[in-house]
Design a protein that fits this description.
By secondary structure, the chain is mainly alpha-helical. The protein is 78% helix and 0% strand.
């Protein structure tokens, strides 16, 4: 007997198909959520291409600044990068995104987006030089307030949109969009910081480097994250509502918000009292972003409990499992139990938590009428995975 999960496993008190205790689970074919062959090949090509672009960008920085300066700038830039990635990790704890997708996001931001910005900047400088009789350069303030926000946010936003298109089964809502947008932005800020720190070291020595580090690394490490998060979150809302042409509209809405916020930030540095605006405007915006993030994370927990409770009513989970999977105390207790076993079963329990959470979000899309055929295949694969995880835990 093969496993055939029902299209709606909680539509009746008795689920159609095998329940967790059914021997059919023992012969189920292992499965995970899909990534099509074409999409998988595109992902491999994109990661390889982004890695190659990263080498080219590193070579450009080494030639422009000097290898030793780039080395120092990189070491200093690791500090704000660690701060941002720690925050992203905290946001992503409930339903972690796949490592390959996060690597693609980071490389896109650190290499591809930076390369696009550098090429456009070079083009603007050449155009200004050849179009002006006295060979004047482009206006720096105009570049900071208009060119940089448009080019940089478009380059970063396209990366988030590509991840959505290539990894739809891993892009379930606004928190996922926030995570991918923040990771792209973290990569971009990392490379940009290397450039800024290197220039500061060359022009003003250690003192200028220290000042630049305080401003960029400690006062505003989340600036780019805040901008690109607008694009990521709106794509996440599109993923929650459905797919199609609407995704492009949501992407454009988020992109415009990201550009305006970026332009406002750069404009405050160029034309206003940056110190006063930082505490009266930027800090409140940052606090509001934290509040929104916390609320989105809580919504993830509510979705998990609601959908797993529906599965439990059909016999796929026990109520104790639902409690252990849908709350932080429950997850901590489950992991503590796993660590106390001989041999420890921590990885098995982590996998069970991850698969059950993905199952809940997949079911949420199906139950709200926004699923395609692939989502039903995802549900079947995840039901099989949950059963397999349960067997592994029980030994």
């Amino acid at each position: 007997m093969s496993l055939t999960p029902p299209p709606d496993p909680y539509a009746s008190p008795n689920p159609v198909g095998p329940t967790p205790g059914d021997p059919a689970f023992a012969t189920a074919v292992p499965g995970r959520t899909r990534t099509g062959t074409g999409a998988g090949a595109a992902i491999v090509v994109l990661i390889a291409a982004a890695g190659l672009v990263a080498l080219l960008v590193a070579g450009y920085l080494a030639v422009a600044l000097g290898a030793s300066v780039v080395a120092v700038g990189t070491l200093v830039a690791l500090v704000p990068l660690a701060i941002v990635l720690f925050a992203v990790r905290w946001i992503d704890r409930w339903e972690p995104e796949p490592r390959w997708a996060l690597w693609l996001a980071f490389l896109w931001g650190a290499a591809v987006s930076v390369a696009i910005a550098l090429i456009v900047d070079l083009g603007v400088q050449l155009f200004a030089a050849f179009s002006s009789p006295d060979g004047a350069t482009a206006d720096e303030a105009l570049q900071a307030v208009v060119q940089a926000p448009i080019v940089e946010e478009l380059a970063k936003g396209v990366g988030v949109l590509l991840i959505f298109l290539l990894a739809r089964s891993h892009f379930d809502g606004p928190v996922d969009g926030l995570v991918y947008g923040a990771t792209v932005a973290a990569g971009f800020a990392f490379t940009e910081n290397i450039l800024y720190f290197g220039v500061a070291l060359i022009e003003g020595g250690a003192g200028e480097l220290g000042t630049t580090f305080i401003i960029r690394g400690l006062f505003s490490p989340f600036a780019h994250v805040l901008f690109t998060a607008c694009t990521g979150v709106t794509i996440g809302f599109a993923a929650r509502r459905g797919r199609g042409a609407g995704v492009v509209a949501w992407f454009l809405v988020g992109l415009v918000a990201a550009i305006l916020l970026h332009a406002f930030w750069n404009g405050s540095l160029a034309f206003a009292d940056a110190f006063a605006l930082y505490f009266t405007v930027q800090v409140p915006i940052f606090i509001a972003a934290i509040v929104v993030t916390v609320l989105l994370r809580r919504e993830e927990q509510r979705v998990t409990r609601r959908r797993l409770t529906e599965y439990a009513a059909a016999g796929w989970f026990s109520q104790d499992e639902v409690d252990g999977l849908s709350t932080w105390p429950g997850r901590r207790a489950a992991l503590a139990w796993a660590r106390a076993q001989q041999p420890p079963r921590t990885e098995q329990v982590r996998r069970f938590i991850a698969d059950a959470t993905r199952l809940a979000f997949t079911r949420n899309i199906i139950a709200t009428g926004r699923a395609d055929v692939g989502r039903h295949a995802d549900e079947r694969a995840l039901l099989e995975a949950v059963a397999r995880d349960r067997r592994a835990i029980s030994g």
